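Q&A log
Question type: sequence-to-structure
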Amino acid sequence: MRYKLTIEYDGTDYSGWQKQDNSSSIQEHIEIAIEKFCGEKSSVSGAGRTDAGVHASGQVAHLDLDQDRDTDQIRKGINFYLKNEKISVLDIERVPDDFDARFSAMMRHYRYKIMNRQSPLTYHSNTHAHVKQSLDITLMQQAADYFIGKHDFTTFRSAGCQSKSPIKSIEKILITKQRDKIYVDFTAKSFLHTQVRSIMGCILKVGTGSWDLSMIPDIIAAKDRTKCATLAPSCGLYLKKIDYGSI
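Response status: OK
Response body:
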């Protein structure tokens, strides 16, 4: 029986979604909780492989269990064994056996959160990127607009990216501001490894005035990782939502 999980987590203390040797991952903790709850070993496959320190409010994963179980009981059971972790299963539903959390996804939505003020952060220190310099969100949006559409994003992929092609299409990048908080929403079917944080680093350079807006098209066209800005901090990034067609 295949089940679809919607998951929320604070990624601060984890090495990322994917299991790794000698590290604490989201995937590993969920798999351990499942085995403790129902006695079955099951591999949990996620829609997005978030990096260390990256959060999620709507990660989606699927798992297979031998027995047909009540979805609410599965959710409660997994969460019971995750009670000491900053991970929560929000919802579980039965899905067809050909559903795949990663490959069935139609669209992925990420949000980047910025606290734009000079004073140090307290309870937002692990949930927002802190930028002390004044940010011009009009310039930031103009910079973001250059990334929308289909491009070769070689400049913005990590050296270890496993994607077969650097060609991706970004549907939307929308920047909004609420007092000293700035939100940047990214929408695409899929992203390269570190693509969002790489683009975000460049947008911040323009927003602070460190880079001229006219540099962005040349940086995209360069297809050269060394031309990219420093990655924006992982603490500001959230996997917000995954869209699927009818299941």
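Response note: The mean pLDDT is 95.
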